[in-house]
Amino acid sequence: MSTPLIGVSKSILKIKELINHVANTCLNVLITGETGVGKEVVAQNLYAESARNTQNFVKINCAALPETLLESELYGYEKGAFTGAHKKRPGKFQTADKGVLFLDEIGDMPMALQSKMLHVLQSGEFSPLGSDHEFKTDVWVIAATNHNLEKSIAQKTFREDLFYRLNIIKIEIPPLRERKEDIPSLIEYYFRLYSSEYPNNNGSKPGSDILEKLCNYPWPGNVRQLQNCIKKQMILNSWEKILEELPKDQIQIPVAPQFETSYQSQQHGINNAFPTDRTSIISQFVDLSTSSDKLFEDISLKKIKKLASDRVEKEVIAFVLEKVGWNRSRAAKILKISYKTLLYKMDEFEVSPPR
Ligand SMILES: Nc1ncnc2c1ncn2[C@@H]1O[C@H](COP(=O)(O)OP(=O)(O)OP(=O)(O)O)[C@@H](O)[C@H]1O
Ligand SMILES: [Mg+2]
User: Would the pTM count as exceeding 0.90?
Assistant: First the structure.
């Protein structure tokens, strides 16, 4: 059974309405939003509301697999198609036939596979690896990403034609900090759910002052992070401790204290911690409080490398700009990049002078 889409904010109500409208059209849907906002929940709700709900909902994470494995998972293969292909295996396009194929993290699909995907979406036909046969497929494609695909197109890492194929219906889920009014109903829902899952542990619900603090926290990990706090509360029964342990919405990068910039403190209002141990470095990029199964599913070296390098780039750019009084040409010279690239990166990483 799929998780219900909880929320009372305008944006969630609009998304619910859109789900009802789109569910039986089978138009390709692209769901976007930060990590943990509920992209998979929306995909499952689309499927549950559609007439395809008696068939399969097949998910594939395009970021979790190397290119060749992703290709064979999607399209299947014939016996002997490659070393190790001891017997024929159906791909996700086949198992999802008449149902839904959920292409998660589509923004991380390698370019070569994007061309093949475009062909399948256009023709409705695919060939398993090692086969000359074209098979018909009738799948409803729902894709999700936390990348800005328009930017990926500009950077030539995502095909524009594939984007238009997938983006027939766009569902953009705002971060939780932009729909704080959903927080009380999410707390209510997960409290009820976990009370039955943890019958021997029953932490108290938040009182009005704690609720206010929870509503004002920026939730960088969105609903997933809120969910984990509620689980913790069931066991610890101390909102004070949970609030205290909430990671601050800061950019933590391993910079030596003498290089700590006032830009960071101005932007985030908190001191920058210098993570020294392995766990605290990794915990900036993945949620270590989830189960190992989920954790292993979430860990992708490629994704973490990108997140880490983006964070470091952003901080270095902000650091240099601040040192030169936000003189962009000087900063570009120091950083040894073109002025245009600097402007592009400032826009991408949302780096702007303090107001
Ligand atoms: N509106 C919601 N109502 C109920 N539960 C929600 C909602 N949004 C998210 N969740 C819960 O939060 C967790 C994260 O949601 P989900 O996996 O759908 O996020 P996501 O956007 O796909 O994240 P990621 O980009 O990291 O894959 C899940 O356990 C999900 O059940
Ligand atoms: Mg997801």
Answer: no
